[in-house]
Amino acid sequence: MVLSLLFASGFVQAGADEDRAAFREFYEQRFPNVELKQHINGAYALDAGRRAQWIEMEEFPPYEFTIDDGDSLYHEPFRNGSDYSSCFAGGGAVKQWYPQFVAGEIVTLEVAINQCREKNDEPALAYDGVEMAQLMTYMAYVSRDKVIDVSVPGEAVTAYERGKQFYYSRRGQLNFSCSQCHMQIVGMSLRSETLSASLGHVTHWPTYRFKWQEVGVLHRRFAECNEQVGSEALAFQHPAYRELEYFLTVMSNGLPINGPASRK
Fold it and tell me: How far apart are CA 135 and CA 141, in angstroms?
């Protein structure tokens, strides 16, 4: 019943709270022995053997130097003498409040970083660039254990619904949707990968993927997923990806930030 409701939700205008309740109920029923908050650990919440290996690896995390680089960038003064602290409170520990709906659009933390730079007469960073990944890694790190709290005000409902529609819509030569991998066949293996739950997907980014041999941002993964199903990847921070991130973050409200992370 829950599964059929969720797959229909691209057409049923349920509120965000109702969507989140159904989303969580689905995973509770699918994995009754997995505590909901454990889904922040992705596939490692579902595979005890791989989880043990991952915990050992986290003793010397491969993203450690990226945190340090991001720390330096965050505190490096702009040409006007200011820095990122003029835009972000708490030393940058703000990831739990993004994305936000501002002035008619979804503003992710990456967009907010470039808005801060514009405000201080600095050129924008490339969304697929190394410096953006470093800053995001540092800001995720200082936001660890902060609980996601992203609202959907009335004026944001249309953007939220578009993000939800993207999640459930099929695309590409394989005619796959996000929900097919991460709901219909969640927990199963696809090639050598265990498919993780979408609940908690946003909590652990940016992520060091051994496939990439570096830290990458969430929209890099979105683009990669699109390509894997034979669909054209969108540019990082394309409005459709921002709205998808918005939907997934609202679904993970109440879960703690645990990024940056490492993944296979």
Answer: 10
